[in-house]
Amino acid sequence: QVQLVESGGGLVQAGDSLRLSCAASGRPFSRYPMGWFRQTPGQEREFVAMISRNGGGRYYADSVKGRFAISRDNAKNTVFLQMNSLKPEDTAVYYCAANTRNDYSNYESSHAYDYWGQGTQVTVSS
Which pLDDT score, from 0 to 100, does residue 71 have? Predict the structure, then answer.
């Protein structure tokens, strides 16, 4: 079992920055990749970013590439999402997720992740 708790969401203006955090507990954190997804009402959960177990591999959706950065601190069992140059279209509930099956072939799909946090709201006003 893995428990995930996100924090750091909020209301910001376009162009601002936010840093999301996700604290994990349960299985050894360094043994699985982590991802961030986001979801708006009526839409499917959308891949945002993924980071490998040791942080050496980082992958992003085209819509956030160059603006968002995923990182992790395995000593603190925490994954981060630094979001810069935020746009109104980034408004969503953001979820962190654990890929404890180490399914790197399907990392952009929510089906590759078996544990999810409760989500944190990010709202970007224009």
Answer: 98
Q: What per-residue confidence (pLDDT) applies to 26?
A: 94
Of 32, 112, 17, 103, the closest CA to residue 72 belongs to 32
pLDDT in tens, 22-72: 999 998 999 999 999 999 999 999 999 999 999 999 999 999 999 999 999
| Predicted pLDDT at 97 | 98
DSSP the chain: -EEEEEE--EEEETT--EEEEEEEEES-GGGS-EEEEEE-TTS--EEEEEE-TTS--EEE-TTTTTTEEEEEETTTTEEEEEE-S--GGG-EEEEEEE-TT--GGGTTSGGG--EE---EEEEEE-
Q: Which residues of 36-69 are buried (b: 16+ CB within 10 A; e: fewer)?
A: bbbeeeeeebbbbbbbbbebeeebbbeebeeebb
